[in-house]
Design goal:
Helix content is about 50%, strand content about 25%. By secondary structure, it is α/β, with parallel strands linked by helices.
């Protein structure tokens, strides 16, 4: 199941929870397509349980991120990854992941910290 909330203008919070269905992946990729044409945007992303993306969706996202890297660098004010799992922490905070993201990227343990970080970036962006 996917939940997408616009918490402020062009700042989106996305949560995918079990049971994940194919439509969730399609909704997320659709959101990315919608965001990339905005002047700016921020994204907070979290998953719960066994809600990770399928291999096909991961491949599609990888292709999308590579194709849109210049636009992400220009328009994404920040990407916050909420991670509550110690076992996955290394995957999300790796040097490779940091280098792959063309915009500010932060891994936090809860949505409140993610919102605060994104709002601080938004404040700096608007000034």
């Amino acid at each position: 199941m996917i939940r997408i909330d616009e918490i402020e203008t062009n700042i989106f919070e996305v949560e995918i929870t079990s049971p994940r269905v194919t439509e969730d992946e399609e909704s997320f990729l659709g959101l990315l397509d919608d965001l990339i044409v905005k002047d700016y945007f921020g994204l907070i992303f979290s998953t719960e349980g066994k809600a990770g993306f399928s291999q096909d969706a991961k491949k599609a996202m990888s292709t999308w991120f590579k194709a849109n890297k210049p636009n992400l660098k220009e328009r994404c004010i920040g990407f916050a990854r909420v991670n509550t799992s110690q076992s996955k922490a290394g995957k999300f905070t790796s040097k490779a992941m940091q280098l792959a993201m063309p915009c500010p990227y932060n891994v936090v343990t809860n949505n409140e910290d993610a919102r605060e970080w994104i709002k601080n970036l938004l404040s700096a962006y608007n000034n």
